[in-house]
C-alpha cells in the first residue's frame, strides 16, 4: 500500500549549502509522524517541498501515489497545513476566517456553518469567534489557523512547529485534535524540537540534521532527548570527518 505522503530521494539546495539532501520519508494513513530536529535542520524546507510550495531539485514527492504536479486541483481540498505562520486574515473575525477556510477546502455551504461551530468548540474559540483576528494574541491566532487547517478532516495534514505559540491549554487541545484525525485515518506530519511533546502523540519520530534524515526514535522509548542528541552529534562528527 502506498503512503499517503511520500518523499523519495528529495533534495533542494540553497546558497551556502542549506536545504535538504536525499531525504526519504513516508507518512501512512492513520499515522502521526513527527519530524524532529534542531533549528535550521531543514524541517520547514522539507515540509514546503512535501506541500508543493517548493520544487525539489531532484527526487520526487507523491501524495496517495500521485506526483504532486499531476494531482488534480480537487485533491488539494483534502490537505491541511500550517507552515511558519497560521493563514488567517487579520480584518476578518475568527468565525469568518474559519468559514472562508471551509469553503476553500470544498466544504458545501449547507454544512459549512456546522463544521465551523464544531471547530470553534473544539479549539475553545467561543470567546473570540466575533473578534477580528488581528486583535487576538499569537496563541489564539495559532488556534484559529490550526482549526482552519483541521476542521475539514484532511486526508493529509502537515504542521510546522504548531505548539510554538500555544499555551498549555492550547497544547492539550491540539493533542486531542491530532488523535481524532489519526483515528479517522488521516496522515499527519508534525515538526517540533520539543521531543517530550511530540512523543505524547507520535507513532514514530524521524530525526533530521543538516538537511538529512539521520535516524529514527521510538516515542515510547526511554531517554529520548539523549538519544536524539546522540544521533545529531554522530552525524555532525561524520560530516566533520568527510
Topology record:
Blueprint (H helix, E strand, L loop, with lengths): L4 E9 L5 E9 L3 E6 L6 H8 L7 E6 L2 E2 L11 E4 L11 H11 L4 H14 L15 H13 L5 E5 L7 H16 L3 E6 L2 H4 L5 E6 L2 E6 L6 H18 L1
Parallel strand pairs: 3-8, 3-9, 6-7, 7-8
Antiparallel strand pairs: 1-2, 1-4, 4-5, 9-10
Helix pairs in contact: 2-3, 2-4, 4-5
Family: Belongs to the ABC transporter superfamily.
Keywords: ATP-binding, Nucleotide-binding, Transport
InterPro entries: AAA+_ATPase (IPR003593), ABC_transporter-like_ATP-bd (IPR003439), ABC_transporter-like_CS (IPR017871), P-loop_NTPase (IPR027417)
Strand content: 15-25%
CATH topology of the domain at 5-84 and 157-241: Rossmann fold
Can you summarize the main beta sheet?
A: 6 strands, mixed
Count, helices? 7
Order of secondary-structure elements: EEEHEEEHHHEHEHEEH
Taking pLDDT < 50 over at least 5 consecutive residues as the criterion, the unreliable ranges are none
Q: Tell me the name of the CATH class of the domain at 5-84 and 157-241.
A: Alpha Beta
Mean pLDDT across the residues is 94
Using the CA coordinates, give the radius of gyration: 18 Å
Distance between the termini: 37 Å
Q: Structural class of the secondary structure composition?
A: alpha/beta
Assigned CATH architecture of the domain at 5-84 and 157-241: 3-Layer(aba) Sandwich
Q: Could you tell me the number of beta strands?
A: 10
The general outline is globular
User: What is the CATH superfamily of the domain at 5-84 and 157-241?
Assistant: P-loop containing nucleotide triphosphate hydrolases
Strand order of the largest sheet: 6-7-8-3-9-10
Bin the helical content.
25-40%
Amino acid at each position: 500500500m502506498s503512503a499517503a505522503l511520500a518523499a523519495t530521494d528529495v533534495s533542494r539546495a540553497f546558497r551556502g549549502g542549506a536545504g535538504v539532501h536525499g531525504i526519504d520519508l513516508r507518512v501512512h494513513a492513520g499515522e502521526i509522524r513527527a519530524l524532529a530536529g534542531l533549528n535550521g535542520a531543514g524541517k520547514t524546507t522539507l515540509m514546503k517541498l512535501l506541500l508543493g510550495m517548493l520544487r525539489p531539485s531532484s527526487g520526487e514527492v507523491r501524495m496517495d501515489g500521485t506526483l504532486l504536479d499531476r494531482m488534480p486541483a480537487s485533491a488539494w481540498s483534502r490537505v491541511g497545513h500550517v507552515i511558519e505562520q497560521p493563514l488567517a486574515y487579520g480584518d476578518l473575525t475568527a468565525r469568518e476566517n474559519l468559514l472562508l477556510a471551509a469553503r476553500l477546502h470544498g466544504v458545501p455551504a449547507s454544512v459549512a456553518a456546522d463544521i465551523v461551530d464544531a471547530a470553534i468548540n473544539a479549539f475553545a474559540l467561543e470567546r473570540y469567534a466575533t473578534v477580528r483576528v488581528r486583535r487576538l494574541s499569537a496563541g489564539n491566532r495559532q488556534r484559529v489557523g490550526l482549526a482552519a487547517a483541521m476542521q475539514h478532516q484532511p486526508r493529509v495534514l502537515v504542521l510546522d512547529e504548531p505548539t510554538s505559540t500555544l499555551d498549555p491549554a492550547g497544547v492539550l487541545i491540539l493533542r486531542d485534535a491530532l488523535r481524532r484525525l489519526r483515528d479517522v485515518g488521516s496522515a499527519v506530519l508534525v515538526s517540533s524540537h520539543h521531543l517530550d511533546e511530540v512523543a505524547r502523540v507520535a507513532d514514530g519520530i524521524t530525526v533530521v540534521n543538516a538537511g538529512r534524515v539521520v535516524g529514527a526514535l521510538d516515542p515510547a522509548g526511554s531517554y529520548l532527548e539523549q538519544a536524539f542528541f546522540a544521533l545529531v552529534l554522530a552525524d555532525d562528527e561524520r560530516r566533520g570527518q568527510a
